[in-house]
Amino acid sequence: DAGITQSPRHKVTETGTPVTLRCHQTENHRYMYWYRQDPGHGLRLIHYSYGVKDTDKGEVSDGYSVSRSKTEDFLLTLESATSSQTSVYFCALGGDSGNTIYFGEGSWLTVV
Amino acid sequence: GQQVMQIPQYQHVQEGEDFTTYCNSSTTLSNIQWYKQRPGGHPVFLIQLVKSGEVKKQKRLTFQFGEAKKNSSLHITATQTTDVGTYFCAGPEDSSYKLIFGSGTRLLVRP
């Protein structure tokens, strides 16, 4: 698609452990996003970045932190995973023109 | 904050029937976008509407943007099994680059 790679694609972790999801792009897009998708809630924005070291909160940012130390990587960290953070996480790129965004293939996270 | 509502939540149709999903925003939008997500897949961009009253077509899909730029619709004529998936509308929050998504309409098509 748009040169987006998410890792890991699937992960099972225990409650209370830290988890980091990585989003890597090869398109040099300025804007990067992390969404989570849950049944009945659609896609909800967690955090987004508008440049290196420039990030902002989305609708559901509690319990999550992000970092963007270089253009191509946007990391999402769950400091202490909880069962309510079991979800599918999508990274997305875009916003340079008309706000159109391109999604990665998703990371399935299960917190037990 | 801005809210984007989408109805219906589910629609189950017989192949060949038409399908429509509606999107309503609590605020005026600078543009609206539509995405399709196949089961098990990721959302894929379909189209963007920018102008008040704009209508765009992609084969059997017709997209409309309301005159007040607060609502939109996606109409599929003569559905096919390949149309199965969830359709999302999305609009930028306060003309920013934060895209707010509707909750989606899941389309199921009986062959």
Account of the 3D structure:
The complex is a heterodimer of chains A (112) and B (111). Chain A is an all-beta fold and 112 residues long. Chain A is built from no helices and eleven strands. Chain A has strands spanning 4-7, 10-13, 19-25, 31-38, 42-51, 54-57, 64-70, 73-78, 87-94, 101-103, 107-111. In chain A, a hairpin with a 3-residue loop joins β4 and β5. Chain A is globular and about 35 Å long. The relative contact order of chain A is 0.34. The mean pLDDT of chain A is 92. With 111 residues, chain B is mostly beta strands. Chain B contains no helices and eleven strands. In chain B, strands 2, 4, 5, 9, 10 and 11 form a six-stranded mixed beta sheet that branches. In chain B, strands 1-3-8-7-6 form a five-stranded antiparallel beta sheet, with no helix packed on it. Chain B is globular, with a radius of gyration of 13 Å.
Give keywords.
heterodimer, A: 112 residues, mainly beta, four-stranded antiparallel beta sheet, 0% helix, 59% strand, globular, B: 111 residues, six-stranded mixed beta sheet, five-stranded antiparallel beta sheet
Overall shape of chain A: globular
Name the average pLDDT of chain A: 92
- Helix content range of chain A: under 10%
* Uncertain segments of chain B: none
Short précis:
Chain A has 112 residues and is mainly β.
Helix and strand layout, with pairings?
The complex is a heterodimer of chains A (112) and B (111).
Chain A lengths: L3 E4 L2 E4 L5 E7 L5 E8 L3 E10 L2 E4 L6 E7 L2 E6 L8 E8 L6 E3 L3 E5 L1
Parallel strand pairs in A: 2-11
Antiparallel strand pairs in A: 1-3, 3-8, 4-5, 4-9, 5-6, 7-8, 9-10, 9-11
Chain B lengths: L3 E4 L2 E5 L4 E7 L6 E6 L6 E6 L5 E4 L2 E5 L5 E6 L8 E8 L6 E3 L3 E6 L1
Parallel strand pairs in B: 2-11
Antiparallel strand pairs in B: 1-3, 3-8, 4-5, 4-9, 6-7, 7-8, 9-10, 9-11
